[in-house]
Design a protein that fits this description.
5-stranded antiparallel sheet; homodimer; 19% helix; SH3 type barrels; Fumarylacetoacetate hydrolase, domain 2; EC 3.7.1.2 (chains A, B); 2 domains; globular; tyrosine catabolism (chains A, B); fumarylacetoacetase activity (chains A, B); Fumarylacetoacetase (chains A, B); alpha+beta
Chain lengths: 391, 391
């Protein structure tokens, strides 16, 4: 039996004392945003804990990082601060520690019922980058968009391919997404289609939240890259496949993606994920020295996507995948990003790309699941090619 | 004879009272950054002018937009504020207005010799987008990278193609750029090259600085797009052609660009550019209704690139081009960017893409000028394929 909290945590909760993901929330409408961590059905208000003087370690004692409206300051402080914060929070939430447990007035102030908390985007995102690191997804998209000859481009096994995404339209889970209008690929010699996207899709991803950055012109060593990663969020890289297919040659995806990208409000730290670390897949050909890691690991994280049609009670599972299906590790992605001297900043978001597994049931988007609309996906009583019932 | 300033302005100065571009500067090392406008060989310190109570119009009277360390607040206030600011500044700088002219102590405070001022990035850039709107550049790159068959992709005449760039590595003119390391395209079956880029290039561009933005999910009408444009900067989109050629399939340019992008410290406003407006090129096929403008204009701005080799006295002109060579207008670029609901924010940077004209002497980058290194470019006594003498 491991560490336990005095806060009651249901056995199937995502938020035991071993997790403690970070977010930013308002305890009530109109109140100032503040950092918090999830514990059971509560959010622990870190500004209240800091005001009570409970962050008494050498780094955090004099810091105002928990009196900010986002996590960027904490992100920039790096692993020593994160380790100290985690130790302090685990201690004050543990069942054997009386400080918070036996202080009813502080508990009242600091433990906010999660269903009362309004969750916000946890950090100001300077830049958002999206990688393309699942081999299965790459191969499926290659066949669908470019045909069965060499669906995986020759560069793919040498470097973690990525593109710059749009930071302004990254929103927190629960934010409405408006179906984008745009130009779709013409058929034959007709003019391009214009109107609301007919091929709206989700993409199952996770994303790294960058901690301390690097100076412009300096690179981050792949073996030190983990110290620049605060943690991971879930991400849905909403995609309009008809817009994307028409616009992406030769400079890549643009409006087919930039209408909205959703991330989870909770950032799960690398410390919390450590028990789920596993060996990364073997890479062949061997990566160039700047991408060769002393220890090459990924995390065994089961991922699931459910769709709940409008007006229906029930959500339907449409895919089951796992982070461990990625070919390139998170640390390789980050190191590659800086090999040219590009500067990362605290709060930057690095998406993994769609996480598809090898089996059709594990494909991470409808483009693959319905093979670009050629097959129907069953959702209880109805079917889908892409998102929405209106076509 | 038009409006004249009491500040002496040389006839060949870029900064007569008709221009008045905005920037952000430090009057001396370590002092607080503040907004300014250029006039002759001086920078007018707008924080000093505001402190003296000279911004006395209805919008700016109570605003603290000139007491900020960047221009974002002014950018977000929109055209009425910009018009009021320009009128006020032109008035107080004019030869017939005694307020500043005859106040030695205020002149001493507010007029900073340009060679003493440290120019900074004028705004915080939320997102940076780079378009691809010169037909000549598109065609030349198409032939070089993809061969002579259909060098201009079929989508190009239907929409202003663009990609998301890296905001963190945008720097102000004069900032050193470190030659990026990275993977270059392998020849035949060899492994990819790794090392400092062998094909470092400049790209002659201009870029829009966005004023008021739009809400996520709402588009900006092309006929109202000009009200969302504060002004233009010069831009050098440094490019590593060997890195770019290897990485860009299928998701576009990434590390071949993100090691640095230089913009001028001065933003020339659309108001100042109005006398240089001219008809935009005729577009065929006719653009879709959301891109069809009642008035379709561009600006006649002569552009020149000079290279000054290390250790030499003299800079050599390597290209002469003009903004009017663009096929898609600035307002079409901005409207297209939002047609899917993507939200722009004050301070966003929208590059035009390389501005190449029809003649070889007007090509906007070395890739085109030396045809990917096949020809030598003469620079006084030496020659170049790409930037740097070391290869």
């Amino acid at each position: 039996m491991g560490l336990q909290s005095f806060v009651e945590v249901h056995p199937d909760s995502h938020f035991p004392i071993q997790n403690l993901p970070y977010g930013v929330f308002r305890p009530e409408p109109g109140s100032e945003p503040r950092p918090g961590v999830a514990i059971g059905d509560y959010v622990l208000d870190l500004s209240a804990i800091a005001s009570a003087g409970l962050f008494d370690g050498p780094i955090l004692r004099r810091s105002d990082c928990f009196h900010q409206t986002n996590l960027n300051k904490l992100l920039g402080m790096g692993r020593p601060a994160w380790t100290e914060a985690r130790a302090t929070i685990q201690k004050i939430l543990s069942s054997t520690e009386p400080t918070l447990r036996d202080n009813a007035s502080l508990r009242q102030k600091a433990l906010v019922p999660m269903d009362k908390a309004e969750m916000l985007l946890p950090m100001a995102i300077g830049d958002y980058t999206d990688f393309f690191t699942s081999m299965h997804h790459t191969k499926n998209c290659g066949i669908i968009f470019r045909g069965p000859d060499t669906p995986i481009p020759p560069n793919w096994f040498h470097l973690p391919i990525a593109y710059h995404g749009r930071a302004s339209s990254v929103v927190v889970s629960g934010t409405d997404i408006v179906r984008p209008r745009g130009q779709g690929h013409p058929t034959d010699n007709s003019p391009p289609y214009f109107g609301p996207s007919l091929k709206l899709d989700f993409e199952l991803e996770m994303a790294v939240i960058v901690g301390p950055g690097n100076e412009l012109g300096k690179s981050i060593d792949v073996n030190e890259a983990a110290d620049h990663i605060f943690g991971l969020v879930l991400m849905n890289d909403w995609s309009a496949r008809d817009i994307q297919a028409w616009e992406y040659i030769p400079l890549g995806p643009f409006l087919g993606k930039s209408f909205g990208t959703t991330i989870s409000p909770w950032i799960v730290t690398l410390d919390a994920l450590e028990p789920f670390a596993c060996d990364a897949p073997k890479q062949n050909p061997r990566p160039l020295p700047y991408l060769a890691e002393k220890v090459s690991k990924i995390y065994d994280i089961s991922l699931e996507v459910r769709i709940k049609p409008a007006g229906e009670e029930q959500a339907h599972v449409v895919t089951r995948s796992n982070l461990k299906h990625l070919y390139w590790t998170l640390t390789q992605q980050l190191a590659h990003h800086t090999i040219n001297g590009c500067n990362l900043r605290p709060g930057d978001l690095l998406g993994t790309g769609t996480i598809s597994g090898p089996e059709p049931e594990s494909y991470g988007c409808l483009l693959e699941l319905t093979w670009n609309g050629q097959n129907l996906l069953s959702l209880g009583g109805t079917t889908r090619k892409f998102l929405g019932r209106w076509r």
